[in-house]
Write a structure and sequence with these properties.
With 430 residues, the protein is an alpha+beta fold. The protein has 13 helices and 12 strands. 53% of the residues lie in helices and 17% in strands. A hairpin with a 3-residue loop joins strand 11 and strand 12 (417-424). Bound molecules: adenosine-5'-diphosphate.
């Protein structure tokens, strides 16, 4: 609402001030002297008010202007309203900035606002962490000076931001960052940086997986195709028939076992969590595995020892646990030289249930241990193939255990043997 300056009141005030002076001046015969003295006093008074106003504007910290008198009352009041309006506007703006900053902090990505010359205007907390920026030290610094990657500088200077830029972080290894740049306000750019390490790893895992499966299936297929081609046109001498048949059968079994293991892995990955809380009679399960192990062990002739607590049952998914237990037991038999020792323990330890398989095999070098549960990872591929291994057994075991809130521990000494073990917490015991 506009306030109207009351001109008539101003004129009236002047009139009331000068009329008595004029009358007295006429009476004493010096009207001009009195008018001059009156004007002079008025001038002094106005200067005084002006002084109060400038003093308040320049020196006083008070938000309210001084009390105005006469004509100055309106001036001071006007300034007071102006101040008030400005203060409200400033608060609204501060609120807007705060909301923008809160929003930018809530974004799960690092955000940096740059001037067109790439100097930093502002960044969120995540940018400090992800890009290693320092605030406020780096305010005004050029981002291409702080991220010293030629690829980044080239990308920023080219100014074509349709495609994002992927960069391996310079200061933290194995971190892959995706930079997206978009124009922001006038003459500014907003850089949004996202950590895509996990996505990249998944993409790499998918590629490796497809390559590994194809490779694993191609080897037996090549063998079978080779024999089938030799059979064509009676090229194969009858003496080779039986060998060819055996080899083809063996290779087909390999493919069958690989496909079964892949299916079981995908079943475990897709299974619901509710499916794994049935009471399982583990001693009985281990009894079956022991019988199977004895028959597999006939060739190797190891001393097999099963120390089983007959009263130790747990809650879980039976099929999954069977494959976890048996993978470890059969691996121990396969990867131990004939005449070794394999000991299986299923015992209560304070509040936990512990399973372990210890062998006196060749052992595993430390650099392989962390990678054993990767799909298709084998220390010695040729040796694992002769045992019929696909490299999926420990990957399946790892998945099964993680679904049962447990994990696989592996300790091994080259030349002495290995121990594969895991425990189940109290809440899994029946
Ligand atoms: P595989 O089907 O090849 O046995 P696994 O996933 O079960 O696949 O095991 C992965 C690799 O771990 C094996 O190829 C082998 O090199 C190594 N390994 C597993 N168990 C043992 C063990 N008890 N002793 C020595 N090496 C082992």
């Amino acid at each position: 609402m506009y306030r109207v300056v009351n001109k008539r009141a101003l004129v009236k005030r002047l009139f009331i001030y000068f009329l008595p002076l004029l009358l007295i001046g006429v009476l004493i015969g010096a009207p001009f002297l009195l008018l001059f003295l009156g004007s002079f006093s008025l001038l002094v008074w106005h200067y005084h008010q002006l002084y109060r106003l400038s003093d308040w504007l320049l020196n006083q910290r008070s938000f309210n202007p001084p009390e105005g008198e006469g004509a100055w009352e309106q001036v001071f009041e006007g300034i007071y309203h102006l101040q008030h309006r400005n203060r409200n506007k400033r608060n609204e703006l501060a609120d807007l900035i705060r909301r923008f900053r809160d929003g930018a902090e809530a974004v799960p990505d690092a955000v940096v606002v740059l001037q067109n010359d790439l100097s930093i205007v502002w960044c969120n907390q995540l940018a400090l962490k992800v890009l290693g920026l320092q605030w406020p030290t780096d305010h005004g610094q050029r981002l291409d000076n702080l991220i010293r990657e030629p690829k980044f500088a080239k990308y920023m200077h080219r100014g074509e931001f349709d495609e994002p830029l992927e960069l391996e972080s310079g200061y933290s290894e194995e971190l892959v960052l995706e930079f997206r740049v978009m124009p922001y306000a006038s003459n500014q750019l907003m850089v949004v940086v996202r950590n895509v390490t996990r996505l990249k790893q998944l993409e790499q895992m998918r590629k490796d997986f497809v390559a590994n499966v194809s490779h694993e299936l191609r080897t037996p297929l090549t063998v079978v195709t080779g024999y089938l081609e030799m059979m064509d046109g009676d090229m194969m001498p009858p003496a080779m028939w039986s060998k060819a048949q055996n080899t083809m059968l063996e290779q087909c079994k390999r493919m069958d076992s690989l496909v079964n293991q892949l299916l079981s892995l995908s079943r475990i990955e897709g299974a619901r969590r509710q499916d794994n809380d049935k009471a399982i009679n583990v001693p009985q399960l281990l009894k079956y595995i022991e019988t199977e192990a004895q028959s597999v062990n006939q060739e190797k002739g190891h001393i097999l020892t099963f120390n089983i607590d007959p009263n130790l049952d747990i809650k879980g998914a039976e099929d999954e646990l069977r494959s976890a237990f048996s993978n470890l037991v059969f691996n121990a038999i396969h990867y131990t030289q004939p005449g070794g020792e394999v000991t299986v323990n299923w015992q209560r330890n304070a509040t936990q249930a512990c399973f372990s398989v210890t062998d006196t095999g060749d052992g595993i070098a430390p650099e392989h241990i962390n990678r054993l549960t990767e799909r298709f990872y084998r220390v010695d591929k040729a040796r694992s193939r002769t045992t019929g291994g696909s490299g999926l057994g420990l990957a399946i075991t790892k998945h099964v255990l993680s679904r049962h809130d447990s994990h696989l521990n592996i300790t091994s000494t080259v030349g002495q043997g290995s121990c594969f073990s895991f425990t189940f917490n109290e809440d899994k015991l029946v």
